[in-house]
């Protein structure tokens, strides 16, 4: 008889959707050439949307959510991986169109996996997870633009969230003066512990929008989108840059061409789902090098798998700080 394991399964109903903790076997999994015994996953904003049905991120029903995971290869028909190899997965539609990480066992394409970076444990890799990986891609985009630590302040919106917390820590470690934006000013001590030298309220980036405001920041990492991003763009220095990776404040961008054609501001779109493997490995190697593990620990909490339905509600409502690692294999 095939061994069973626990998994969260979301399914569509006439009244919305159900989230159930079920017993599955490998026979229930989707196609793939590598089978992984999952040890850890994480809770990302997109996972919250999948768990709650707040937005239509799930593209196939039923679905096992969890857009990232770490674990040990159990079976492999892929030339790059062997049983016993520790691996990490982020992106590629896992948890949306392909069964994801909220499962004791996952079967995926080996092309989606990267080896667990040397120097990281599986739980630390998930403390970084999709959010930290995305933050590193944003930092790399600003570096490629030529943003230097002595150019001026770097703004980070949504700073108390997963991407924002990691971005603050990375930038501070690299010598940038970080200005953190948050809607939860009670998180100021937390953000300063991560390396932010200034914390400002989210309301600073609201109100009447001017095409060009005072030049305040050399660059920014934005997870909000919407009017927040428009305000950020209007306050970037000449020849500055913004790396945009989120839409927590909306998909619209009510800006003008002024920042781009009068100040030469560059807007870089950063996506983390379909990133080619060489860039993935570059980002993970930089994370191992540049993200202080003590700060990583300070922004992370570990939770059991059974807490996921409640935490999914909380992250969608903006009530989750930093990174949440989910113990799958416990």
In brief:
By secondary structure, the protein is an alpha/beta fold. 28% of the residues lie in helices and 28% in strands. It has 2 domains: 4-116 and 299-327, Quinone Oxidoreductase, Chain A, domain 1; 130-269, Rossmann fold (3-Layer(aba) Sandwich).
Describe the structure.
The chain has 330 residues and is an alpha/beta fold. It has two domains: 4-116 and 299-327, Quinone Oxidoreductase, Chain A, domain 1; 130-269, 3-Layer(aba) Sandwich (Rossmann fold). It contains nine helices and 15 strands. Strands 3, 4, 5, 6, 7, 14 and 15 form a seven-stranded mixed beta sheet that branches. The longest helix has 24 residues, at 122-145. The model has no long low-confidence stretch (mean pLDDT 95).
Summarize this structure as a short list of keywords or feature phrases:
28% strand; Rossmann fold; 2 domains; 15 strands; Quinone Oxidoreductase, Chain A, domain 1
Could you outline the blueprint of secondary structure elements for this entry?
Layout: E1 4-13, E2 16-25, E3 34-42, H1 45-52, E4 68-76, E5 86-90, E6 105-108, E7 113-115, H2 122-145, E8 154-156, H3 162-173, E9 178-182, H4 188-194, E10 198-201, E11 217-222, H5 226-234, E12 236-244, H6 258-262, E13 266-269, H7 277-290, H8 293-298, E14 300-304, H9 308-316, E15 323-327
Helix pairs in contact: 1-9, 2-3, 2-7
Helix content: 25-40%
Rounded to the nearest angstrom, the distance between the terminal CA atoms is 22 Å
Query: What general outline do the C-alpha atoms trace?
Result: globular
CATH hierarchy class name of the largest domain: Alpha Beta
- Average pLDDT: 95
Architecture per CATH nomenclature, i.e. the level-2 architecture of the largest domain: Alpha-Beta Complex
- Assembly classification: single chain
Q: Care to count the β-strands? A: 15
CATH topology of the largest domain: Quinone Oxidoreductase, Chain A, domain 1
Main beta-sheet annotation: 7 strands, mixed
The structural class is alpha/beta
> Helical segment tally?
9
Succession of helices and strands: EEEHEEEEHEHEHEEHEHEHHEHE
Radius of gyration, Cα only, in angstroms? 20 Å
Beta-strand percentage? Answer: 25-35%
Low-confidence spans: pLDDT under 50, at least 5 residues?
none
CATH level 4 superfamily of the largest domain? Medium-chain alcohol dehydrogenases, catalytic domain
Overall number of structural domains: 2
